[in-house]
Amino acid sequence: MQLPLHTLLSLLAVGPTLVTAHATLISLSIAGQDQGKGADKYIRAPATNDPIRDLTSPNIICNTNGGKPAPSFVKAAAGDKLTMRWWHYNPDDPNDYPLDPSHKGALLTYVAPYTTGDGQGGIWTKIAEDGFEGGKWATEKLIANNGNVEVTLPSALAAGRYLVRQEIVALHQADFAGNDPAHPGRGAELYPGCAQVEVTGDGGKKPDQGFDFNKGYKYDDKGLHFNIYVPFDSYTPPGPRPWKG
Ligand SMILES: [Cu+2]
Questions:
Q1: What are the residue boundaries of the structural domains of the chain, listed by start?
Q2: What CATH code is assigned to 23-216?
Q3: What residues of the chain score a pLDDT lower than 70?
């Protein structure tokens, strides 16, 4: 029997080599126009590409530098297609890759009214989600699409400044809950990235789900504690169902 790579690594209790397998949000294209690398320009770039596992930490919202505003915004119209690009380390390195294939899981996208803070509190609304559809994990599509994930800004979205937060929910260690004392270090790995987007083309509706990550994401949520290594029928991502406006 062949074991999945991460199961094998967990059994061997190999830690440090996993550090090289993570990813960050690096750039956006808006309606097909590449906005260039976003780190410390319009993306609140984290200190490292490491996952966040502590669901009580503000770092699950916009990562480790979530409270550090970037200097600029990219502009998009309500109804525009956003292509958000993820990469392991360096997209200019031909030997590098978007995401380790062991990191199977969901891609979720939320918006909040712009804040210079780190995004704590009930300010978030989910606008898109992709978990397991058509026999494929969202992360498998990301890898096949060279790191790119396409979402559409709701056409109902009111004009204004927003944080657009996309996250990878990687489930390769999530066969145990993230707070299971018998299995420290396991649980879902969250890779959140927040971009600063100014929305034009007024759809007039303010997103109103009022979702709070630190209250709404729980260790026993079936979207965050899920065994990908056994047969299953369906997967429901954590958080609310997407807002349509
Ligand atoms: Cu990783």
A1: 23-216
A2: 2.70.50.70
A3: 1-20
